[in-house]
Design a protein that fits this description.
The chain has 407 residues and is α/β, with parallel strands linked by helices. The chain contains 19 helices and 13 strands. Keywords: Methyltransferase, S-adenosyl-L-methionine, Transferase.
Length: 407
């Protein structure tokens, strides 16, 4: 499916992503404010020409949005602050329910009175009104004289929005996903797998068995990837590479965008056979069939050799240390000494931080059993498996690009 142009700012989409899980912490960034400013940090003495101008400029730190109470206002007791976090889980579930009902899709054709909106989404009018009230208070949807309408913050809840987060919200709110979070106390105590306890099998095996749930998850991951796509492309210059190999690249959204913007570059898209089945048609639609090879296989066995750059986007965080190490060693075996490895991942701060990353770390723990990592943890993981981390590129989104060279 071609990627369209959105009128919604990336920061608004990523803020809504944060609200879906991040509201549980009461720390979601406000709409319209960037989550991070582009900045590149050199980690080794060797320099690279591959950073774009937007990535090489150092910007001041983003000021904190946390504000204390006005002068003279009593500070809320700790119990009140904790209660606010607990109640945030209610709001997250309400948002997910709005996505499941398809309210934004119905309102895409124009505002509707409550009764008609309820009829269109198959809901009880009074229950629907009560459900929408907390969202209205958060600025999600608008209402005047009992007539409901889309607004900029509700727009990404449309399934057909170019920067849609509807499937992500549906996944987060699905009882099968909520059940994983209910097992967090057990996982913390015992170290057992939440997916094994709930489904009787690993998460990725289960979503292949329950395809209705699996398709929602697959679409959710595509949505998340698309939301982070433009910041990644803006922060890094891929034009210096002759051939780019995208490992487990799915339907090739990232790789096709890179190839479109760098006419002198060729690509290799590598993934499992069933994942790559629709890709030839997609490449033909983009006019890239003659510049992008399709190779099937598993990154646990071997990956295509001969690339100048190897991309692992949102892959390493899915796996515990030994499996992540296996993937890195497989990729290293295919690389020449002059090639580069590009990990595209969230990178956690060493100190506890407010926001989406620390929450996603637990989401990954409960689903796939993996983890988000700090820069130090990535550096150590890479060094143990044949790589040196030479550059960290921050983007205007939630992802960062870690460039490593073989050693």
């Amino acid at each position: 499916m071609p990627i369209g142009r959105s009128t919604i700012s990336p920061s608004a989409v990523l803020s809504l992503l944060g609200r879906i899980r991040g509201i549980l912490s009461g720390t979601s960034p406000s709409v319209g404010s960037p989550l991070a400013e582009p900045v590149a940090t050199t980690l080794a003495s060797s320099s690279s020409p591959r950073l774009s101008a937007s990535a090489t400029s150092t910007t001041p730190a983003v000021p904190s949005t946390r504000q204390g109470p006005p002068s003279g206002t009593p500070t809320p007791p700790p119990s009140a602050l904790l209660l606010g976090i607990i109640q945030g889980s209610f709001l997250a579930q309400i948002l997910c329910t709005a996505a499941e009902l398809g309210i934004a899709d119905v309102l895409a054709d124009g505002p509707l009175p409550l009764e008609e909106l309820a009829a269109r989404v198959g809901a009880q009018p009074d229950h629907l009104r009560r459900m929408l009230r907390p969202l209205l208070a958060e600025g999600i949807f608008s209402c005047s004289d009992n007539v409901y309408a889309l607004n900029s913050l509700a727009e990404p809840l449309r399934g057909d929005a170019p920067d849609s987060v509807r499937a992500l919200a549906r996944f987060v709110g699905d009882p099968k996903a909520i059940g994983l979070w209910g097992l967090l106390p057990t996982v913390v105590r015992t170290g057992e797998s939440a997916a094994e306890l709930l489904y009787g099998m690993p998460f990725f095996d289960y979503i292949q068995k329950d395809r209705a749930f699996g398709e929602v998850f697959d679409t959710a991951m595509t949505e998340f990837s698309v939301a982070a796509l433009e910041p990644t492309l803006a922060a890094y210059d891929f034009s210096g590479f002759g051939t780019i190999v995208d490992i487990a690249g799915g339907h090739g959204r990232l790789l096709t965008e890179i190839l479109t913007r760098t006419p002198g570059t060729r690509g290799v898209l590598f993934d499992l056979p069933d994942v790559l089945a629709p890709v030839p048609e997609l490449l033909a639609e983009r006019g890239l069939a003659d510049r992008c090879a399709i190779v099937t296989g598993s990154f646990f066995d071997e990956v295509p050799a001969g690339g100048d750059a190897y991309i692992l986007k949102h892959i390493i965080h899915d796996w515990v240390e030994d499996r992540a190490a296996h993937i890195l060693r497989t990729v290293r075996a295919a690389m020449s000494d002059s090639a580069r490895l590009l990990l595209i991942e969230m990178v956690l701060d060493e100190e506890p931080e407010r926001g989406f990353g620390t929450l996603l770390d637990l989401e990954i723990l409960l689903t796939a059993g993996g983890r988000e990592r700090t820069e130090r943890e990535y550096r150590e993981l890479l060094a143990a498996n044949g790589f040196e981390l030479v550059r960290r590129v921050r983007t205007a989104g939630v992802d960062e690009i870690l460039e490593a060279r073989p050693i």
